[in-house]
Design a protein that fits this description.
The protein is α+β, with helices and mostly antiparallel strands. The protein folds into 3 domains: 7-91, OB fold (Dihydrolipoamide Acetyltransferase, E2P), CATH 2.40.50; 112-147 and 192-264; 149-179. The chain has 5 helices and 14 strands. The strands form 3 sheets. Strands 1-3-4-6-5 form a 5-stranded mixed barrel. Strands 8-9-13-14 form a 4-stranded mixed β-sheet. It has a 3-stranded antiparallel β-sheet with strand order 10-11-12, covered by helices on one side. The longest helix has 24 residues, at 149-172.
């Protein structure tokens, strides 16, 4: 079977997760966006912190990049990206109507918008849906949860292996400066995460609990502490000022398990001050 074709596509970035370590790809960031028709896309792997300055995109910014369907990831939204092909385009500015312009792009397709988790999980089972835009009917609690001991061990082992491989590669290629891989950057392991308990529109909904993987929230936790991040998420999701929603993404090996990869929080038209 011939390989899937490479396509140059425009993607509007809507979320990216805190960096994770991959035995195959090194440090990567799972990035979500939508195409010009509003269809959701997952871009992986993206070595975001290792991209050249002119390639480091922002959320709510258009980029163009060479994409191909990932043959090892059957999720319909998932595409491999040639990181060297990334080119930055228009960024939707922070104007009074920024959220309206962003919504016009992000919510152009209704196929990935849900109010019911039952409907969303059915779409996952029947069509492989792995990215979703969901509006909670109620936020029950925002808390801090410990990650498992297995997560910490896995991180440390991957970090050790990648550092050894990076050092070996740099030493081997030292005679050819233009091909020396970059020295590994420090990546802090976050042993705790902010979690959100919330309800959807299902009449018999007993609640859903999901961890927040959004880079901005995780970076706030790393820089200012978990409580600062928890308060930030709680304010964005429970304040009467915001018309909030969640951008969800599932896990490759556990397709019925979803996490919060991005927060959507435009001001309400009838916001209270």
């Amino acid at each position: 079977m011939p390989p899937d074709p490479v396509e140059l596509r425009r993607v509007f970035i809507i979320a990216k997760t805190y960096p994770e370590l991959s035995s195959k790809y090194g440090e990567t960031v799972c990035t979500a966006g939508v195409d010009v028709a509003g269809n959701p896309l997952r871009l992986y792997p993206v070595p975001f912190r290792y991209l050249a300055g002119p390639q480091q995109f922002r959320r709510y910014q258009w980029i163009s990049a060479s994409l191909t369907k990932n043959p090892r990831d059957l999720r319909p939204e998932s595409h491999s990206v040639d990181a060297t092909s990334i080119r930055l385009e228009e960024s939707i500015p922070a104007t009074v109507d920024e959220w309206g312009k962003r919504a016009e792009i992000l919510l152009r397709s209704t196929a990935w918008q849900f109010s019911s988790m039952d409907d969303m999980l059915r779409a996952q089972r029947e069509h492989g849906r792995s990215l979703a835009f969901v509006k909670p009917t109620e936020v029950i609690a925002v808390s801090i949860r410990d990650r498992s001991a297995e997560d910490a061990v896995s991180f440390e082992q991957k970090l050790k292996n990648l550092r050894q491989q990076n050092a070996a590669d740099r030493k081997q290629l030292d005679l050819f400066e233009s091909t020396i891989p970059p020295k590994m950057k420090n990546l802090e392991y976050l042993g705790q995460r902010v979690c959100v308990e919330w309800k959807c529109s299902d009449l018999d909904c007993s609640g859903h609990s999901m961890q927040v993987l959004d880079w901005e929230i995780c970076e706030l936790a790393r820089r200012d502490g978990l409580e600062a991040a928890r308060i930030k998420v709680e304010s964005l999701l429970t304040s009467n000022c915001y018309n909030s929603a969640l951008i969800l993404g599932n896990f490759h090996m556990f397709p019925q398990s979803f996490a919060i990869i991005g927060l959507w929080y435009p001001l309400r038209d009838d916001r209270l001050f």
